[in-house]
Write a structure and sequence with these properties.
Oligomer: single chain
Structural class: alpha/beta
Distance between the termini: 40 Å
Number of helices: 22
Radius of gyration: 24 Å
CATH topology of one domain: Urease, subunit C, domain 1
Mean pLDDT: 91
CATH architecture of one domain: Roll
Number of strands: 25
CATH class of one domain: Mainly Beta
Helix content: 25-40%
Largest sheet: 7 strands, mixed
Strand order of the largest sheet: 3-2-7-22-23-24-25
Strand content: 15-25%
Shape: globular
């Protein structure tokens, strides 16, 4: 295992309470029987030493003993529930350290465009949906990506589809289709007309309305330009009653929770929501209505932050189910739609170096507010220039406190200049990366960046870890599917669907990949004393797998199945029932 210099003090410090808990187990915990014991398991504790055992005992929602079955036998009573794992593997509950939780629920209520092989396939999907809806109803979908189609659509601009075919096929329904990256969207003619978009409409700051050679909008809106369409669509939701909106949110939370639990995800880091949604989810947590633990980042401007930060911090609400203590900013876009902010222009679009979506002075002001109020700052940065600018602002604002336990983050950190790689550990900044983005995007990364920049700076996990960083993992769902197996497999192989390897020298070890879904996300959310490993005193969030994720063949990771998901000592998903439990 590699040593992680910048957080060595934190990891070493976490061992002492664990050792003390194990030492006192025989003297104190054994006085009362366990409510749940899982035996005959390969227990991967995912603590810093990657310890293993074969049994775990739980009481009052927390782990009370970890060890051999012989030791735990004394904790069994007539009321103890016993799960015989029969040699299957037990891990801590997984944490997706970057997704959009309610957005995941919303995506499950709209058209899934991710499997389309052409623009014509998407037009056909939308046309079929229109037949089932009254005229004027919005049709929404998500997941299209022009770089993954087998052929380019007729009349494409920079590879993006023009609205002509869609507008002819679906003239009576406004259409809003979100790009797979979330950093662009498509609108048909009716939706654009409702938004007042025409050839004379100017690009908003940090965004672009794609137009053809005649200056006509083709229906594709990049980065901040999406707001032109989304504002109009949002007005239709504003006509719903309070009760209808509450019911809709509850259903989206339920759908997202079920999707998480069946994949072994017991905790999530929500990467950017409003103060209002935070209040709504806090109330759900107090009423025991949140299906998973949510660590939420607030996304808004500096004026609203200044007004609301002091009274809007939530810590461990509802039995550690909901926390708000961080802020999300997006400084650039995504590589797929040419929105990532680069130090040098794109190889395949030399007139552009991407987009800066939030002004640097605004980001610096937000950083100052986070520093003042003791909030964590999490900035979306994908391009190498975006990452450098964020590191520069962090260093400037933190000043003499740069070595404090701030745990500020950069979300994605996908493309880095070689000189900036060691700055993460040196500044105590955590790169939160989604391994599935690497293998999903690799088909177009060299086209966008060229071979040299791709090799030196694209998804450089090994380089970052060797410099002392930890890398919390995730999926960015609904940008990608929430399945953690895909990100685990990508982390240790960097193998694409066609069998090619994408700079495999940057792979994580198997141990690091497991930590990237367990202990490292807990550290990135200040929750390592409660979550992230199977240790005495921690929350009993556990997942039983049908194979050993540490030692199975890499290809077997993709076929690993969750047998049971346990949250706070309670079984919430059981594969034998094929459903999330109430």
């Amino acid at each position: 295992m590699h040593e992680f210099a910048s957080l060595r003090w934190l990891l070493a410090g976490s061992l002492w309470p664990t050792f003390l808990g194990l030492w006192t187990c025989a003297q104190v915990v054994r006085a009362q029987p366990a409510e749940l014991i899982i035996k005959n398991a390969v227990v991967l504790q995912c603590n810093p030493s990657m310890g293993e055992s074969d049994a775990v005992a739980v009481r009052d929602g927390r782990v009370v003993a970890v060890g051999s079955q012989d030791i735990l036998d004394s904790l069994i009573s007539d009321q103890t529930q016993i799960i015989d794992a029969q040699g299957q593997t037990l891990t801590p509950g997984f944490c997706d350290s970057h997704l959009h939780f309610v957005g995941l629920g919303q995506s499950l209520q709209m058209l899934d465009l991710s499997q389309a092989e052409s623009w014509a396939d998407i037009v056909a999907q939308v046309e079929q949906a229109a037949k089932l809806l009254p005229k004027g109803a919005w049709i929404e979908g998500r997941g299209w990506h022009q770089s993954k189609w087998k052929r380019q659509p007729v009349g494409a601009v920079d590879g993006y589809p023009s609205h002509g075919d869609m507008s002819l096929a679906v003239p009576d329904h406004p259409v809003l289709l979100t790009h797979a990256s979330g950093h662009a969207c498509f609108a048909n003619e009716l939706a654009m007309r409702m938004a007042g978009v025409g050839p004379d409409t100017s690009d908003p700051a940090g965004g672009e309305i794609l137009k053809d050679e005649n200056g006509q909008p083709i229906g594709v809106f990049r980065e901040n330009a999406q707001s032109l369409i989304r504002r109009v669509q949002a007005r239709s939701n504003s006509r719903m009653s309070v009760a209808e909106r509450s019911q809709l949110l509850s259903e989206q939370v339920r759908l997202a929770g079920e999707e998480c639990l069946r994949h072994g995800i017991t905790s999530v880091h929500d990467a950017g929501s409003s103060f209002q949604l935070a209040e709504n989810l806090a109330e759900m947590a107090k009423s025991n209505e949140l299906p998973v633990r949510v660590y939420m980042m607030i996304r808004t401007g500096s004026d609203e932050l200044q007004a609301k930060m002091p009274a809007s911090r939530f810590e461990a609400v509802g039995g550690h189910f909901f926390t708000v203590r961080s802020v999300k900013v997006s400084i650039d876009g995504a590589l797929g739609p040419h929105g990532a902010w680069l130090l040098q222009p794109y190889e395949d679009l030399p007139e552009s170096a991407g987009l800066n979506t939030v002004a640097l002075d605004e980001m610096e002001r937000i950083a100052e507010l986070c520093q003042e109020h003791g909030w964590q700052l999490c900035v979306h940065a994908i391009g190498d220039r975006a990452n450098r600018e964020v590191l520069d602002v962090y260093e400037k604002v933190l000043g003499t406190n740069v070595h404090s336990d701030h745990r500020w983050r950069i979300e994605h950190a996908q493309h880095l200049s070689v000189s900036d790689i060691p700055r993460f550990a040196a500044l105590g900044v955590i790169p939160v990366m989604q391994a599935n983005h690497c293998t999903s995007d690799a088909i177009f990364v060299p086209t966008r960046l060229g071979e040299r920049r791709s090799r030196q700076g694209a998804y450089v996990w090994r380089s970052l870890i060797d410099c002392g960083s930890i890398i919390p993992n995730g999926t960015d769902a609904p940008v990608e599917r929430i399945d953690p197996r895909v990100s685990l497999y990508a982390a240790v192989t960097r193998r694409l669907s066609n069998g090619d390897l994408f700079y495999p020298e940057q792979c994580m070890t198997r141990e690091e990949a497991l930590l990237s879904y367990t202990l490292w996300p807990a550290i990135a959310a200040f929750q390592e004393n409660d979550l992230g490993s199977i240790e005495v005193g921690k929350q009993a969030d556990l997942v039983l797998w049908d194979r050993d994720l540490l030692r199975c063949q890499p290809e077997e990771i993709l076929g690993a199945n969750v047998q049971k998901t346990i949250l706070q000592g309670r079984i919430v998903f059981d594969a034998s029932l094929n459903s999330a439990l109430p």
